[in-house]
Amino acid sequence: MGFYVGIDLGTTNSTVSVIRTEDMDDNPLDTLTTCPIYQYDARLQYATDETCLPSSLYFDIENQKVYTGLYAKAMYASGTRPMQTVRSIKTRMSGASEILIPGIRDESRRASFNMVQCASFFIRTILQSLRAQYPDEDVAREAVVTVPAAFSDDERVATRNAVLLGGFQSCRILDEPTAALLSYLNSEAANTDLEEEEETRRLVYDIGGGTLDVSIAEAKINENEDYDINVLGLSNRMNLGGDNFDQLLAAKFLMEFEQSTQPIQSYSEEDQNRIIARIVSNAEDYKIKLNDQVLGCDPRRLARLRPLRVSFELIRGMYVEGQTLSKAQFDDMCSIFSDPNVGLLLKPVKSALKQAQIEASDIDEVVLTGGMSHFYAIPEVLQNFFGPEMPISVVDDTRTAVSRGAALYHWGLDEDNYHEGVKRLSHISERLAGNIYLRRDKEFDLLIDGKMQETSGDFSRPVTDGYMTSLPLFLYSGSLEDGAEKLTALAGKRLPLSHPYHEGDKIPLHWSIDENKIITIDVQEPGFAPIRFSRQLSTEVIQNDPV
User: Fold this and answer.
1) Could you read off the pLDDT of 236-267 as tens digits, one per residue?
2) What pTM was computed for the model?
3) Least C-beta-crowded within 10 Å: which of 7, 271, 477, 543?
4) 3-state SS assignment for residue 241
5) In 331-344, which positions are buried (b, 16+ CB within 10 angstroms) versus exposed (e)?
């Protein structure tokens, strides 16, 4: 019997999918299920039929309660408790980022939480839901959890820690575009009628609430009728998604409101947060209404589409009203994203093509996933870039495709599992979003090639000036071809040495990168433990954590 769990820990929504098999040759697609996630709804009634867990938190410090999902999202949208509600945690996913939550009745009573702890609340909600639905299974044994392909070492470790802190015993990390691609390749929509060794190149465009990820993968069928995946190119990290569109629209609403009343800065801190919560939540609603209106209209009638009338209460009987929203207005606002020359929506496509060293015409198919992939502007921008002949496909369910792919990947990790017609990823030739460099004074030495042709290696750190009593290890990501100023700082530590090294000496080091793309560096001297740049939680810390 097997039980396989895939979790998509999203910026806007999180989902969990499972596969439950009795025998090794059971068809996993027959039992692949996206499970309901039990949570409180807006009326504080227990909902047991929601497959999406909104990635929102509401903290009741005095009663030591944390609400996840629908109720927390409703509290944010209402603006009732702006200082106690938190969302978009994924875009701040690192152990160093913290939030301070005041009490509801006593503001002097405060508690701080880092993003690992915040994300662990979502994981605990998911795990409790699985335990309720599968009481006879060891559901906490292991999970595959997805992250953006360009997540750094720190963010990957933080995600792993959140999963363990949330109650799972083991965690495997998978890149979101790879999970979405696996889900798509096992769907009826995919063209999988390929000969052995025949290759296809697909560009996976994953745009959610807060992150945009582009991956170019070359897939071919091997002799076992499974897929060998060669990741040719990845985009650089980009925090761009539905939230950014909401914020643009919210800024328009806010500007109109301030012109008719007073600047937001004149309100108290709590009222400012209340106004922002209300205006952003309503901006999201009007964006969705506009999208539904555009998609439901015959393209020939778009020019005559009536603008939406905007009206909603903002604070204490004051309204945003007298405004309209049309497609032309919204397109003009969003030109920073959609412009074909400088638009941010195409920036990761171009960087992934450049890294893969191919042209747009070399792509066989574009696969869309993520909550924003249904927004009318996204396929429109991509179709204009790739041309009218390029097939652009959307995964079966953009909300659940990533967690479904993660569950399929989890099932495929067991080499004994096999079923004819189900495509596994028997081999993934992964890569990083950029090369990894070690900074040495003003120089940058290549440490790990982004193509990940090697997963470990030896190198030495020369001492070039005087003597050295501590070893500076600062990592950067990117490509020196684009200039050192465009490299992104990843992590850094200064390690005390057991004895001084003098000018001309070389400090022997060994690096390795595991299947989760987490980097470890060893000093090849007696008495040194492996150096992990981001703190990985121990079992003892997890068991004693107060959250």
Assistant:
1) 878 899 999 999 999 999 998 888 888 888 88
2) 0.89
3) 543
4) coil
5) eebbeebbeeeebe
